[in-house]
Amino acid sequence: MRLHTGLLLIGLYIVLALVPLLVGLAPPTPAGRAFWLELSVALGFVGLGQLALQFALIARFRRISQPFGIDLVMQYHREIGILTVLLVLAHPVILITWRPAYARMLDPLSGDPAALSGVLATVAMVGLVVVSLWRRPLGVGYEAWRVSHGLLGVSALALAQTHVLLTGLYVAVPWKYAALAAWSTAFVGLIVYLRLLKPLELARRPWRVVEVRPDVAGTWSLVIEPEGREGLEFAPGQFAWLKVGRSAWSVEEHPFSFSSSAERPARLEFGIKELGDFTGRIGAVAPGTRVLVDGPHGSFSCDFHAATDLLLIAGGIGISPILCMLRTLADRGDRRPLALVYACSRWDRVAFRSELTDLEHRLDLRIVYVLEEGHEGWAGPAGYVTRELLMPLIGDDDAQQQVFLCGPDGMMTAVERILLDAGVPSDRISLERFQLV
Asked: pTM higher than 0.90 for the full model?
């Protein structure tokens, strides 16, 4: 079912991406134009289509992301954003290379509003990609990035649409003008929904903090319960966006994985590590603080795979969604064989140790702790997760084993390569990278 849905969504994506080009090519069209001129225009139309579709990818529609996984959707969003800028840049480059006289259109003082809107659209798109790729080196904060990302994206689409309409050669009839205007407006409407209407829905379903429980080395469990209604159904391993003590329309919201059992939807827990400005203050959140929950999201879940056994690999706070799966399976009385490889820097930074010990008794679970810095008397694996450590835990070719991997990006890249080199099919490896921005 997920494969069929995914193929259907890919087909729909391709059709929607080509809408501007198809509208432009529909009669009537200018006659007698050179090949390079037509190619330049076609690339511009395709770039416009891709730009608009990015609003759909970031609008948090579960039916769009679930067949592929949020990691893959966000990775595609980043990479296609770069490609879109290249397509748009190719439009004037081809024109100027073919006929250098077109370079005068790049002059913002030329008095040509069509050319000016095109130049400004390109600048906005380049700025969007630059700020996104180099946000941290440039010192742009998360909230400032979110605001600038949205403003630059909407500005780029509006200016690109204006450029097409003012140029007029391919949309010179009313129906073309109306079709492109409605098409772009619909995608901008997705941002209006995400930033204005959806927060209103969430504000009507608030949660309250009932406990902020400390664990080891700056790790906390944020525990929330709903106000006067039922809880939230989710699949074990998924995540939600949280606004803690903020207005419904605040730009400060953060994604966290559920760490509590999916069988207990009226009391949600999130494992949170002190790693940034917001998470560094999590221990000071007072009981009674209002929380808005946008979720569940993601496809990182044992419920979405038919597997006879599970190999779970976690690093650091990547244990949070894994813990959610284990707690859920325990509550269900699931007796499938489970293996957990949990990598941490030191023993005193292994989060949720008591819960994991309890789960070993409630499940058919084997836990292998891997410490980067093994202490005196430590008899377990030390260093990093290696091929030699994983091979005895990987199922044979006939096994219907699913591997779940979550942790720091460097660890995940290395472990994924080990698994693939060991012959584990890519569709048997589920990833959660915690890098949505």
From this structure: no
